[in-house]
Protein 1
Amino acid sequence: MGKSKTNKFRRPQFNAEGLSVTAVKEVEEDHDEVCDGVDSPAGELLEKLQSPSADVREFACASISRLVQQSQTIPGFLQRDAVRRLGPLLLDRSLAVRETATGALRNLSACGGHEVCEDMVKQDVMTPLTALLRECCAGFETNDALSLKGQKNTVEDVANEAVNLLWNLCWSVNLLSYKSLLPLSLAHCLHTVTEDNAELLCSMNNAVLGTLESVLRSSQADMAHTLLRTLAAGSVWNLKSSLPTARQAQTLNALMATLSQCLELDAGTLIPQLRQAEVARSATASEAGNMEDHQAAAGNTAVEEMDEEEGVEPRTNGKATKIDKDFSDLLPRGKEELREATALLTAQQTSLEIIVNMCCSDDPSDDEWEEASSSDESEMCPDGLSEGNTSLLSPLCLSAEVHGALINHNIPEKVLKKTQFPSSEAMDVCRHNPTWKMLIKKMHRVQYRALTCLHNMLSTMDAESLGGAAALQAVAQHLSTLVFSPPDIPKEEEFLEAVTGAMRSLLQIIAYMKIPQCMTPQQLMSLSEAATCCDVVSVRVNALAILGITGSTLAQEKRTAETLQMIGNALLQVATKDANLVVCGEALDALFDVFADGDEAERAAENINLLSALKALQPVFKAKIRKEGKGKYSPEQLCVLDNIKVNLRRFIGYLETVVKK
């Protein structure tokens, strides 16, 4: 026997003109009744929010959405704790319920005015709203994260209601008026939803921009306000195209000053000071206060565990796309110093991510192989070989205004300082205090973001802006110290991805400018060996590119054949054995660069039997592209792989002519 089909309630449309006469009468009568009663439209609808049926929950939310458009009904809902009862439904399993619940809160915020909005924020509506917006962002990226089978509602529908609710709250709540965490919740949320959201820009207005600019101009020195200003700066950058022309220069300067001041703070000094302040405060606390601290420490264990989940998605187009899992707002009361330290590190990480995006080209990314590479057929020389990838060697251009602002505020210098390993004193403080241990990963993440930021600045700013040849040599020495000073090359994946990206960009510029560099081929080989064992594809690709740049430079020098053989064997090993075609292609591309020209390169190629090795590899590489290509790789990657396949055939032809000499 089949199950009987549940009757579906037709979801009422949001009615800007309000309720029917009958509904209004019922509500007005209800308003005169005892507020605690359940037998009323408001009470009955709120009870239906707990129904196991998604259709009933949706109907209740849609009905509440209509009712609250009549201002006289709002007190009745607020007295029955409507905000807290609707909040969890923002994360309901049903997209339709999510949309209508968010719509109900949106109408409540729009029709209730300033006081209702403040009350909604105080009742913690931001927690489910922020979680919903983050899920919506993930849904837009994956296209199916929230699109459940059989549901007509889309992530876009839900996000539209959520964003409008956020706008209403932002307009009504003064971000600078609270001494609580509410402004930070709002700012985090706003920063998240404004990134790469062209549709959102259409609903932008001067009220939101004015609020953000007032935050940028604030001067409170505590770390919470530093983080608040940084998040506001990120939102302003995301919304830059909506700024009135007359205010752009002034706003950009305020934005850059905010980032500069944040990066100027020394976490290595401040974290030990904050810990000392916590110890001093605890020493004078009452026994009851000490007991509270003990309970708070237990709570922080959960925070520490949650922090382990914090991560970063692969960058798209060179931008830092992050999964925002900062749980600092969950730290218990009484941990003000730890909260300040967390806010400081979060602000610095966010500042660096904003600069990463400022210095990001709109051209396709290296990681996704959507750039023009040395494999591009269109750049072939008469002998069938590419002249080289000049686009990688010529810095991409920032706008003159952004470029000037970065230089005027000494941003490159401050970014470089943040690429250093975290202070040993700060690390020791955190290691020896369980509740502070969560900061260790955050300190490292600031360093990783700084390295990524350095990579983007090297790719987009001209050498003179970065200090010229002497400064670039100093950067090379600094990166060399980071990688080669420890007894073993660090194997942390996020560090390797960031540092190899920065070294790749730096070596490209150094090779182009013919600047002597401090890193020896043997050191670079050891780095590449460590990197090629990494599971992260972008790390392996960077390592191979570094070998290609180094080898092509050495090929123009005397008595380098032995080193070229070592590089050639390493590249052949990867091209033959790596399971990822993108990595194999990068290895082949590097081989083309290293052995394209020069007596030393010809001698080395002969010694490692490069011609016969490539002839054996050619049919295998073609077969892999044909067999695996369409299922595993993007159209852009396949286009580059096809170009490499053509280049491989031509390069083999070139080697054959060399052998016949």
Note: The radius of gyration is 29 Å.
Protein 2
Amino acid sequence: MAASKRLLYIANHRVFWTTLWRRHVTTWSPVGAAFNAKPHRRLELFDKNVGLFGVPELSSPAGFEVATKKALKDTQELLDQVCSSPPGVVTVESFDQLSDGLCKVADLADFVKVAHPDPSFREAAEKTCIEIGTVVEKLNTNVDLCRSLKNLLDKKEVLAQLDPETRKVAELFMFDFEISGIHLDEKQRKEAVKLHVKLLDLSHRFLMGSHLPNRIAKSAIPEHVHRHFATEGSFIQIGGLHAESSDDMVREIAYRIFLYPNADLMDCLDELLKCRNKLAKLVGYESYAHRALQGTMAKTPETVMNFLQSLTDRLSDRTAVDFQMIKDMKTKLNPRNAELMPWDPPYFSGVLRAERYNIEPSLYSPYFSLGSCMEGLNNLFTQLYGVSLMSEQPRAGEVWNEDVHKLAVVHETEGLLGHIYCDFFHRTDKPNQDCHFTIRGGRLCQESGQYQLPVVVLMLSLPHPTKSAPTLLTPGMMENLFHEMGHAMHSMLGRTRYQHITGTRCATDFAEVPSILMEYFATDYRVVNQFARHYQTGQPLPQSMVARLCESKKVCGAADTQLQIFYSALDQIYHGKPQNQSTTDILKNIQQKFYGLPYIPNTAWQLRFSHLIGYGAKYYSYLMSRAVASMVWKQCFVKDPFNRDMGERYRREMLAHGGGKEPMLMVEGMLQRRPSIDDLVEALVSDLNPDFETFIMDSTS
């Protein structure tokens, strides 16, 4: 019965594609063909506009106001219901339904405000975000709403009857109340709300300012480097570090000017950190970091700093060797200016990698057409989880740009699991970053008995196909695609009862584990060999090229990791107990302790550290997640990356729960043991060890 359902689904969702190029020597699966050609859009003159993501109200920008009003009306009705219901499982279900109603509008608006090409849609979405954000802040300090939840948590006999997931969700909702200051008196609660509102404004200002270019008069820098930068009248505009430039002077100028302190932004950051600390203290925490790390794998700032210091100690000798190698390369190429400076490592480590392993991206790209990469993901998911990616034709008005692909995620026995919208191609005014957005979370709808299927968007900035070739990815782009698809499958494969804990709505230092684990699959030859074919000749990517690519990443890997440790430590200190120093003085000290290269006077790198907003006190998450992913890969998948039993165990132990289970318990379930800080450090250090088999293979190839 299940198999016939799946066949019927396939038959009803056939899609046809127009060919982009003539020379076909490879036969693609439907999903591969879909991404290696532009979808054939049928004329929609007489088709009904179903609205963005199939939400009828969103067929026009004005629909955001309609959707917002409806969500707020439903919220009020649910609020009355929650506050009058006796304590029990229905309390948690009603809380989640209330949260879901707001999130379905707010999450969608969060995406549209940054990604929609139409400014009127973006503006309408921004208004919705502000309006719903304000309501959420009020709900988080609603005493009657909190009391209904507290009545449940205080009744031990009722609490004992709840299943673990329901109890966890109840505790998470209570945590949201507590960090908003619900336990304070009325005067203090108002102060907490004021701080929340102020932080929203400061965060927005800092985020915007951190991406703005700096400018300098053309006459202030040598004329021969002007061509490397954008110009505006008599000024040069510098909007980045130009870290990959081969010209030492270009890198130095970019570093000094782009990082030159902006007084207003400096004040904004100071005020942001003060407000965060004040709010944390107000609601009963020792520091903002202590508040932010509740419920994470690390749990406390002390654990994080122990992890970072232990990793630094283990890497110290390797880091010194890496810096010496980089310095030697700089001396070789520029003997008159051989001192190693902060703007040097990215470029010279790249030179070292290229010199040793010949990893020019253009040699790899012909093997990584977008369609072949999507086919590789489809094959991998089919073998690990019994899941297929199926291309669907979007309906009129459903997508925001004509090159957006829609994928149905279908399980061989469970049927349709959810949808992924793939916004993969570069366009003007689209953020140049790779992201995963939850549009709708999965949940069991008590009101209908049906499961609300998750909907997500993956956003990349890939080049468009041409008349003669499909979109061709560099190795870095291919890995990023696998990374983001790891987030998407986390959302798809979870089957939580509550949307509050769906998919990636989990601890930050756990959320990156599924995506980073996919990077290990992306660089394993057994996986790559299943899909990497030259788009013209059909020839497979040679194993030696994959091996060289993997080994090249370990060149200067200790120095790269140490830079991430420095950023993580800086983030922790900024959000710890106030230091009575300027943020620049703190940076100078932490850079000396955790990185070693000299601080450059009159620079303020912290003003470009945009992760301070979304990852405040949690930047270490990338390192800790990578350590866990490394352990999962080595223990569970390195012997056989297509092992179905391991895939099912991974889904059962780590993906299925979302944020409904303690993150370290999920890791323990997968690894069959609880990793210590030393285990996590060892995992990262061992990743930097050369692969002996690679050298044998290279010497014989």
Note: Residues 1-25, 692-701 have pLDDT under 50 and may be disordered.
Protein 3
Amino acid sequence: MSRQQQESQGVVLTGYHSNTELLPKSGIIAADPDPMHPSRRMGHYSVQQNNASEHGLKASSGAAQPPSQQASPVCTRYPKTHPGSSPRSDASPRPRPGSHPAYQRCNSQDSLGELAMDDYWKEVENISCSGGGDGGGTGKGESGGEVQEDDQQKVPEEGESEEAWLAEAGLTGLFDDSLTPDPDQEEDSAVFLSTLTRAQAAAVERRVVSLQTLKRRNRQHAPDVRDIFRAPETHAPTKVDEATILEEKSENQEKDVSFNATHISEETETEWNDKLSFSEQALDYKEHSQRLKVVSSPKPLHSPDDKLPNFKLIQDKTGQTRIGDLSSLDMKKVRRLVLIEMTALFDTCGIDPKSHKAVKVKAKESGLFGVPLATLLDQDQRRLPGTRVPLILQRLISHIEEEGLNTEGLLRIPGAATRVKSVCQDLESGFYEGVFPWQQLKQHDAASLLKKFIRDLPHPLLTVKYLNAFIAVDKLPTRKQQLHALNLLVLLLPETNRDTLKVLVEFFQRVIDRQAQNKMTLNNVSVVMAPNMFMFKGYRSKVTGQQEISMATSTANIVRQLIRYQRLLWTIPKFILTQVRQQNTENQQKLNREGAVRKLLKKIAIDRPTEKAVNEEGSVGFIRVQAPQFNKVSMAVQLTEELQAADVLTRFLSQDRSVPVKRENLCLYEMGGNLKERCLNEATYMKDLFQLNPAAEWVIKTVQR
């Protein structure tokens, strides 16, 4: 007996009806608010009561269906309903067991909560009909390659997640003293721990304690947590945040402290403060709310497109740092800090994302669809070195844009299933050979192929490891905290996934920019793309009907914020960069205390007398800018209060007009001192940055965005 046959009650969707024709009144059908004026949108579903004697999914008698659906059976697998389950009050209005609710499309664009999530469920139905999202087992792909197995994620065993987390944070020495000590790593870990904030240290301590408890139970020795951290009650903010915390507390004392639950839920603040640790801000918010005895709503309000707050980044004269601006060595330190910070943020809010462990799956070793991102990029880079995003995805996006983004229902209206399948096979065989007839590819078919590419990845684009964390973001109490978590999660994604996600959200924004013509608002795009980004092979077998319903609005809200706030989310927070600078400074000071290094530095000072001259120039208000890539020895630049990195580039180009590089491909780099390497934002104030890193060198060179 099938799973659906085992269900004794509930409701099922029996068909999708176009509003181009008036619906018959027979059967239990969702009525339009005004039967004389049917909704001008796509249509709605028929709903039928499911009981013990009627297990099959029956079509409503006389129901008219769109011509595109008459040729093939209607897939009615979604959503699943289970006895005793009921949706959240704020979830989309899905049918409840034992009732006869109307299921209809809502014209309101006020919010995701008010929207009847029919576009979402219609997209899920399309995915189900195309064979995605239901875990069809192993077999041959459309191009003949081996496809992935259903099971893509594994729940870690007891203690395994803590060990994996500490290992990812580079802190294996805190739980396994049997490892051969690495002096460099040991020094680095000591410095690393000394730069953590109180919330970050508490997150590490919590996992060490949990692992120690488990090991004691198994009679295994582990370093005592008291040897690593001070007692929690004596924790004080580190130098990284101490001044900022005091400043924030001072500002809060001057402000009116009259709060209520509405203020907390709607979050009227629009300033984006990345100088103070996100988890520290969440802790201050929590403590402040507890003092005022304010209880925030369990789920933040979903605002309409035009009412999402416009977060204003607090100006930092030392320049904003984007993903890709730092050296790989500094990015490793950033990632360690971001992992701990993200965990501390969720811990502070009492949320456990329950990360899963990715397992190996059988995947195609070549082709376009159903191929791991890393494999796909590897084969693309052999053809076009430097490729960062799969060529097939880039080409699909460019084709859609060439044909025009004004097509109504773009991304929402699916292409013909049989034609999309045929085109997919043609792409697999002719894309790299350059013989595919792009001029014959229709807009909606191309959009369906784009969604199929995302959906068919052997592992989710947001990764198995962090998928649950992305979903859990919607549980955070304020919009600002949700964005803080998304910022950290974007930084944690593998570079390939992050770059691909960036290309997608940029494309989605360009679609939304034409909403007057294509009728695709931010909400519309988010609702349609959410199931494609969050569902994967075997997904349906891993969640209950209730979870599926509750995830609908949550995942759409996450996609909505990824699109709307992408400029903020793809930046490195200032407090993280400050911690990296502090680690580099303290590591360098340790090295300088060694006799051998002092002798080496003395020799360097003798061999390079110009370095002393450079420092002396900086002390009297000058920096020396080098451009070895363009055979320019150096250029002295006077530091003024208003001098920005853009001014330095302008001056360089004015002095050497023979530079064969466009202005947008040049960057002024901060190199050495307390950072390895950093490409400067053109709005960086050079005098302020020089004061922060006086030992740095300044170099102009090309950059690949």
Note: The two ends are 55 Å apart (CA to CA).
